[in-house]
Amino acid sequence: MHTTLIASMGSKPSLQVPMKWPKIPWTDRLLLFMFSILLDLSCRFNGIISCCLRPFFDPRTAANPNPVSGVCTSDITINSSSNLYVRVFVPSDTNIKGRLMPVIVYFHGGWFSFFSASSCTYDTICRMISREACAVVVSVNYSLAPKNKFPVAYDDGIDVLRFLDSDQIRSIDILSNLELDFGSCFLAGDSSGGNIAHHVARRWALSTQNWKKVQLAGIILIQPLFGGEDRTESEIRLDGAPVISMKVGDWAWKAFLPHGADRNHEAANVFDAIKLGIEEAFPPALVVVGGFDPLQDWHLRYYEVLKVKGKQVKLVEYPYAIHAFYVFPEYNDTGKLMEEIKGFVQANRPI
Ligand SMILES: *[C@@H]1O[C@H](CO)[C@@H](O)[C@H](O)[C@H]1NC(C)=O
Ligand SMILES: *[C@@H]1O[C@H](CO)[C@@H](O)[C@H](O)[C@H]1NC(C)=O
Ligand SMILES: *[C@@H]1O[C@H](CO)[C@@H](O)[C@H](O)[C@H]1NC(C)=O
C-alpha cells in the first residue's frame, strides 16, 4: 500500500498507478466538495468571494503557549510594515532542553491564494512535523495572491530567513531557552508552498556570503506546484482528481504570475533555469509524489533535472495519495510522510 520508491540514478522513475481510486471517507468528500465550490467561485470572481466564505472553508486557530499534542505555539511579527508574521511550533518535551534543535521553515499550500499559518489545517500539520521530527517549525504567513503577485511570497520567505539570521531571534520568548541549529535549517512546503520553498532556496543559494548563521541543509517539497504551458500526460489523465484540476490550476497561476505572463514563466516552469545551472549551495531535496496527483509528472521531471545536475535528491512515492492527502487525517500515508521527514532531517544534519 505505502511503497516508497527511490529511483536509482540514471533510471527514469515511473509510478505504478493503482487501478482503483482510493476510498475517501464521506466527511472528506464533503470537505472536498465544499472546497471545490470555493475554488470555482474564486475562479469566477477572481478571489474576491473567498473573503466572505473563508470562515466556512478555512477555520483558523489561535497560537497556544500551552502544549497541545505535545507542541507549544506562538505568533511572531517579522515585519510590521508588510504585516508579515510566522507561527512558531516548539515541542514541549522537556528532554529537548540543551539539545541543538533543527529549524524547519514551512510554507503552507493553497494555490498561492488560500490558507494561512493560522489555518486549523496547517496548524495541525506543522504541529505534527514539529513533534515527529523534534524540530522547531516556523510557519510563514506569506502574502497571498491575487492581491500579492510574484515575487512577493518569495520575498516574504527571504525576510523570514533574514529574521532568523539576525539577533532579533534572541528576543523571542518561546525560543529563549532553546539551542537552535541555524547551521542546518530546512525549508519545507506543500503544493504552492513547495514552489515557494524551491525559489527561496535558490535565492539563498545565490547569496550564501550574505548569511551569518542560516545554512540550508535540505528542502522538503511535498507535491510542489510547478507547471508549464504544455500539459503533461498525468495532468490530462488525472484531470478531475480530487482537490485539483487544470481549470483551477490555470486560474491560480494567473492569480499569482505577473499580468501577461503564461505558465512558462520561471516561477512555474522551473526546469530550464535548473538545467542552465543550479547553485553549488542548493541543498539536498526530498520530493514527495502521489499516484493520484495530476501534478506527478512535474514532480518526476523536477527529480530528474536535479539528478542530472548532480544534486542529491530523494523521491518518495505514495501510490494511493491524492493531491494534499496530508490534509485528511484518514489518509494513513501521512504517518509515513512524517517518518520520511524525520529521517531526511536526521540524515542531512552534519552532527
Ligand atoms: C519590511 O516590509 C517593507 C514593506 O514591504 C519592506 O520595504 C522592507 O524591506 C521590509 N523589511 C525587512 C527588514 O524585511
Ligand atoms: C495571515 O495571512 C492572512 C492571509 O493573507 C491574513 O488574513 C491574516 O491577517 C494574516 N495574519 C496575521 C496575524 O498577520
Ligand atoms: C491504511 O489505509 C488502507 C486503505 O485505506 C487500509 O487498508 C489500511 O488498513 C490502513 N492502514 C493502517 C495502518 O491504518
UniProtKB/TrEMBL annotation:
Pfam families: Abhydrolase_3 (PF07859). GO terms for molecular function: hydrolase activity. Residues 104-326 form the Alpha/beta hydrolase fold-3 domain. PANTHER family: ALPHA_BETA HYDROLASE FOLD-3 DOMAIN-CONTAINING PROTEIN (PTHR23024:SF24), ARYLACETAMIDE DEACETYLASE (PTHR23024). This is Alpha/beta hydrolase fold-3 domain-containing protein. It comes from Rhynchospora tenuis.
